[in-house]
Design goal:
Elements: H1 12-17, H2 22-44, H3 52-69, H4 72-86, H5 91-118
Helix pairs in contact: 2-3, 2-5, 3-4, 4-5
Modified residues (Phosphohistidine): 60
Pfam family, one: Hpt
Domain HPt: 21-119
Length: 120
């Protein structure tokens, strides 16, 4: 992850959708938070760990969601994980990246949830 990437840009989603209807935006953010929570629970749960295919699936799905809501730093980590899975990287390398994802996902989650709670 580069330090220059934004954790969360609250103006990205309304700008990209050319939309200022808070109810619709709220739905996008809420869905994103649910997806992120599901993944965090899956990653942090007791063994067995996710398979490489599961990691790739979640990385692809959440990478796109991150880009949509304006979380490019986390999107980049998910893209890296998807690439590692596609290239069949060893489990240790993927686990190290997953640990970084968890840290950034929690920060991103806090920022999106705070924005959502503020009601725009």
């Amino acid at each position: 992850m580069t330090t220059q990437q934004t954790v969360f840009d609250s103006s990205h989603l309304p700008r990209s959708l050319e939309l200022d209807d808070w109810e619709i935006l709220e739905d996008f953010y809420g869905t994103f938070l649910q997806q992120l929570d599901t993944l965090l629970l899956h990653i942090e749960s007791a063994p067995p760990p996710m398979t490489m295919d599961e990691q790739r699936h979640h990385a692809h799905k959440l990478g796109s969601s991150c880009r949509t809501v304006g979380a490019p730093a986390l999107a980049s980590l998910f893209e890296s994980l998807e690439t590692l899975c596609r290239d069949a990287a060893n489990a240790e390398t993927r686990e190290q990246l997953l640990a970084d994802i968890v840290i950034l996902a929690k920060t991103t989650r806090e920022r999106v949830a705070s924005h959502l709670a503020a009601g725009a």
